[in-house]
Amino acid sequence: MKLSNIVTALGFTFALSAQAASLPVIDAVLTSPPMVPPPIQRDHAAKVVVKMETVEKVMEIADGVEYMFWTFGGSVPGQFLRVREGDEVEFHLSNHPSSKMPHNIDLHAVTGPGGGAAASFTAPGHTSVFNFKALNPGLYVYHCATAPVGMHIANGMYGLILVEPKESLPPVDKEYYVMQGDFYTKGAYGEQGFQSFDMDKAIKEQPDYVVFNGAVGALNGDKALTANVGETVRLYVGNGGPNLVSSFHVIGEIFDRVSVEGGNLQNENVQTTLVPAGGAAVAEFKLDVPGNFILVDHSIFRAFNKGALGMMAVDGPEDKIVYSGKVAENVYLPEGSAVQSMPNGHPKLVANSKDDQLLFGKRVYEANCQACHQAEGQGIPGAFPPLAGSDFLNADTNRAIDVVLHGLKGPIKVNGQAFDSIMPAMRLTDEDTANVLTYVLNSWDNKGGTVTPDEVAKRRDEGKTIIMEGSAH
Amino acid sequence: MSPVLLSVLAALQMAALPIAAGPTTAPQMAELPGGEVRPLYLTKDSPLTPVAPFRLDMTPVTNRQFADFVRQHPRWQRSQAVALFVEPQYLSHWQEGWPSPEQAEQPVTYVSWYAASAYCQARGKQLPTVAQWEFAAQASEQAANGSTEPGYTRRILSWYARPSTATLSTVGQSPANYWKIKDLHGLVWEWTQDFNSGLVTGESRGDSTLDKGLFCGSAAAGSADPSDYAAFMRFGFRSSLKAPYTLGNLGFRCAQEMADENTDTADTAGRL
User: Fold this and answer.
1) pLDDT tens profile A208-261
2) Is the CB of B151 inside 8 Å of chain A's CB atoms?
3) B229/A contact by beta carbon, under 8 A
4) pLDDT tens-place string over residues A91-120
5) Residue A169 DSSP class
6) Dist. CA B223–CA B40, nearest whole Å
7) What is the SS3 assignment for B187-254?
8) Which of A112, A399, B84, B210 is the most exposed place for a label (fewest CB within 10 A)?
9) Is A131 helix (H, G, I), strand (E, B) or coil?
10) To the nearest whole angstrom, how far is the Cα of A265 from the nearest Cα of chain B?
11) How far is A368 from chain B (nearest CA, A)?
């Protein structure tokens, strides 16, 4: 080798090491959801060393339902990573020896082919290292991109990386990490036991579960996010997908500011923000009143039938001007509460016997009463009183007619259980009222007997709404 | 030389061979007629890869069988194996250097490609090629190509969903496939001779063939077949490997060319 070549080579070596040496080396703080690493206090770039592990493990996706998750760092979503614009990141991806699959990581914050995926492709029991520079500030998704990529994501391999801008983010009181994902299981929603991945449902994009932070109820009850009145909260919201786009909404709050898609665009006063699969958003809001605020995907069947519900419990003094709570609840009795008959040319069937009454009454019951009092008259504890074997019903038939015709309000006791609610006046004909009461009186161990249309007509004139003693208003 | 001396020498020679080689324990083999196998990622119109007739071990090699090999070839003992050919985890699941009674009939794992190759060569065989392995593995219990039967892929995929921390079961527990071969799916991954000629770079969307086959609308018809999923995983797994790797879920079985009728090419020294 010529001397000049050696000098050049030495010069390169020196330059590279000098550049690396100028940056302080820092170990990254990684947090599991819903926690976020503390804000970066540095005013300069650093070399940030990240050590992340891929682990395949069985966890609960819902109460009594287990699923084989593939994870970054043992949680779904994976660990939250926070760096500063201009940082140089040295990323160590280790694949746990017990893994069945090779894994890798594609960070959307990386500028370079594959986002690091090919460079980080790692067999079980091995570690890969690659470097990247965080050029663009923003909130970014990372995920596994090993074939078949959809299945790796569907099993929970995603998370968020925040690249803080050089000028840093405005301080807030609380920061949380929430990430949505859709899951495809062999059994239907809630089916107990171990459930494996269902490829057909995934390809059809028909998930059984749509959840925040990897499980139904991951942010409910004592795992709810918490904050106090007067505080400002910043939610880092991601969506791993693999398929569904999220209509992210917090019931009872308005986002004061949203960093749209996790980028520089700021929107204000947002009710629902769209979070694409493989995308993110930052939502900030100040809490003015206490209570439970529910996080949902406002594609609302997902919230109520597939698990996309979370909760933020806010503590502090009420502000009755901002929100009063319920100040009144009264019976609503519109004019002409008798049935508005719609003549359709068919003569109305008239019951000619008790058997007819029972048959017609059952139909009236199913159409008007069953939704609350239930098919077997068992009611719903705490909400709707039972009609089956009901002491309240059997004690006074005239009162029962009045309840159906005119409504009832206030505390009552039925078979020893207290109920405090409202039974609205039903808009039924005398005939239908007589039939349904006869049906109820002759069902479910009640006392029997008949009610005639004439008796009902009489109570329609003489009776009135029953307001029980102790009724609130 | 007297005929007596000759016969004594011959007897000695015959007796000497088994002593030198020890018991050559290996799985029984099945004969496969050969045929064609569709390479991964290619469309229905792509040419098929021909597979010549061959034999394949009916079960993966067990810890006991591999321990016999190691006894005969001490250079493949855990303590003596060359670091270039095996990772530090090599045979690390054997306590005291040898398999426990429970492990004896479980498939051997924590073996590198070099060690697996040496075993097969010592038995006069080779590791199967990817094409041979895939040809044997596309059989269901009823048909030589069962990959389109309902439930075929589902059964394979369910293995991926099982926690891998569970103890490995012994070999031969699964139903035999059409070729009387067992455990191709659902027990351990298996080494193949040309594992590193796979098509996957590790970045599933970066592989141009995969791009074409899976993600571009125009050519997606062929591989949009969701049953490719299990194959994607095998090819993905293989391409994540390097020859010295020793993994807890990775074992092997051996194959043999049909033309190779006798086994006198066996490399009893276990050389590479």
Assistant:
1) 999 999 999 999 888 999 999 999 999 999 999 999 999 999 999 999 999 999
2) no
3) yes
4) 999 999 989 999 999 999 999 888 888 888
5) P
6) 8
7) CCEECCCCHHHCCCCCCCCCCHHHHHHHHCHHHHHHHCCCCHHHHHHHHHHHHCCCCCCCCCCEECCC
8) B84
9) strand
10) 29
11) 46
Residue B6 has pLDDT above 80, yes or no: no
pLDDT at residue A116, as a whole number? 87
Contacts of A227 (CB under 8 A, 6+ apart): A173, A174, A233, A287, A312, A313, A314, A315
Nearest one of A125, A129, A126, A127 to A116, comparing CA atoms: A129
Buried b (16+ CB within 10 A) or exposed e, A367-380: ebbeeebeeebebe
φ, ψ of residue A274 to 5 degrees: the values are -85, 130
With an 8 Å Cβ cutoff, the interface of chain A facing chain B consists of 56-58, 68, 97-102, 104, 106, 113-114, 117-118, 120-126, 145-149, 151, 194, 196-197, 199-200, 203
Rounded Cα–Cα distance for residues A295 and A308 (Å): 8
pLDDT for A26: 95
Report pTM. Answer: 0.71
> How far is residue A395's CA from residue A373's CA, in Å, rounded to a whole number?
18
Which of A113, A146, A203 is nearest residue B226 as measured by Cβ atoms?
Answer: A203
Q: Which residues in B lie closer than 8 A to residue A54 (C-beta atoms)?
A: none
Strands A466-467 and A408-414 come out as parallel
By CB atoms closer than 10 A (0-12, 13-18, 19+), residue A17 is: exposed
B205–chain A Cβ distance below 8 A for any pair: yes
Backbone angles phi, psi at B203, to 5 degrees: -110, 100
Give the number of other CB atoms < 10 A from CB of residue A27: 9
Angle between helical axes of A453-462 and A397-406 (0-180°, round to 10)? 70
Instruction: Label residue A141 exposed, middle or buried (CB < 10 Å: 0-12, 13-18, 19+).
Output: buried
The tokens describing B24, both together, are 């050559």
Which residues from chain A sit within 8 angstroms of residue B162, using beta carbons?
68
What does the DSSP assignment read for A203-272? Answer: HHT--SEEEETTSTTTTSGGGSEEEETT-EEEEEEEEEESSPPEEEEEET--EEEEEGGGSS-EEEEESE
Shortest CA gap B170–chain A (Å): 18
- Give, in order, the Cα–Cα distances in Å from A385 to each of A332, A372, A409, A421, A435: 20, 9, 12, 10, 20
Q: How far is B249 from chain A (nearest CA, A)?
A: 7
| Residues B176 and B141 sit within 8 Å (Cβ to Cβ) | yes
Judged by CB atoms closer than 8 Å, whether chains meet at B237 and A102 is answered as yes
Closest by CA position to A398, among listed A335, A351, A466, A445? A466
CA distance B65 to B72: 11
Distance to chain A for B24, nearest Cα, Å: 31
**Helices A430-441, A397-406: inter-axial angle, 10-degree rounding:** 130
Cβ pair B235, B199 in contact under 8 A: yes
Mean pLDDT over A432-457 rounds to: 92
Helix (H, G, I), strand (E, B) or coil at A21: helix
* ipTM exceeding the 0.85 mark: no
Beta bridge pairs of residue A130: A91
Tell me: pLDDT of A341 over 60. Answer: no
Question: CA Rg, chain B, in Å?
Answer: 21
Concatenated DSSP letters of A340-360 = -----SSPPP---SHHHHHHH
Question: Considering CB atoms only, which of B232, B241, B242 is closest to A147?
Answer: B232
Of A143-157, A285-299, A326-340, B49-63, which gets the smallest average pLDDT?
A326-340
Long-range contacts of B215-223 (CB under 8 A, 24+ apart): B219/B43, B221/B43, B221/B44, B222/B42, B222/B43, B222/B44, B222/B45, B222/B46, B223/B41, B223/B42, B223/B43
**pLDDT the model gives residue B10:** 46
